[in-house]
Please model this.
Amino acid sequence: MDFELAPEVVRYRERVREIIAAHHTPEAVQHQHASGTFNNPALNRALAAEGLVERAVPGLGAGDPIELWVLFNEMEKAGAPLDALAMAVMIAGVVQHVGTAEQKAAVIPAVTAGDALICLGYSEADAGSDLSSLTTRATRDGDQWVINGAKMWTTMAHEARWVILLARTDASLPRHRGLTMFLLPMDTPGVRVDPVHTMATERTNATFYDDVRVGDHCVLGEVNGGWQVMSVALSFERGVMGGSNPGVSLLRHSAQWAHDSRRINEPAVREKLARVAIDNHVAALLTQRSAWIAASGGMPGLEGSMTKLFASEAYQQASRWFQEMAGAEGLLQFQQPGAAADGWIEYDARHSPVTTIYGGTSEIIRNNIAERHLGLPRMRR
Model:
């Protein structure tokens, strides 16, 4: 297999790197961790101004589809905040795939200009990765839908223009079939956002929907076809749009710490650095496979699950290793004297467990791989 990128994609990657270097400044990083809002609007707009965001939206045909992976892979390797922009681009791709002409006209130009974000209204307090158990309901009332319920982990809801909201619309159908996806503005009456601060520094949110009334123009895809719409989004989220190489920036910070502290002379330290480097290469290859499938017009659902499972758990293991090697200094946070790797090792130790939950928990993804790839019997109801 030829892993070389086309010359135009290489130029695209180089320009992305230049823009990240110019806008992912120490001041931006400090604001990110102080506020808990992992978003850099200036970076988003700078990328959009040169058409680099539009080129990455799945299905637009503005550039090589592999650029979807290139954009977020470069942001992730640089340690730039990518989740907010990645969610917006991912949902713009879903809108391009299943949305109406009206939805496309409203959403896609706003996202590709770097002006609008979209958050995900999937998980609930009692329905995390098992989304078929969700209780948020949308009831038909004349020519409107009335939505009542609550969502958890609605990251970026406090800055997003829209939310895609999965709700139960027909309780008589099997759990996976009676769901509908809605695309509604966050300023719709009846929507409330409460902050939830996480161990990874990042702010997420709990969102509440109290007699929220929307018309059919807010239905994304088919009524009772919400599971299929969500599957399209997850196929891009897992293994293509970031989350597969967080160990790269961890390795860079840790290797610099090892050199500065002269711990690099210890065989055990060199061994762990080498093992993490190998895992990062494996994660990159798995990611490239998922990206190739997406670039070829496929939906890398299973392959993306494999990528996400391996990368997130390897990242968690690496952060544990480096924190153990650093000892007490590995417990010190940003701006604390003596902190290993200026506090990045401690941060990654807090951040890495969260990545095993994004896009579906490791347990759910293991079941998915076992059933769909290994052919093992389904053990869940």
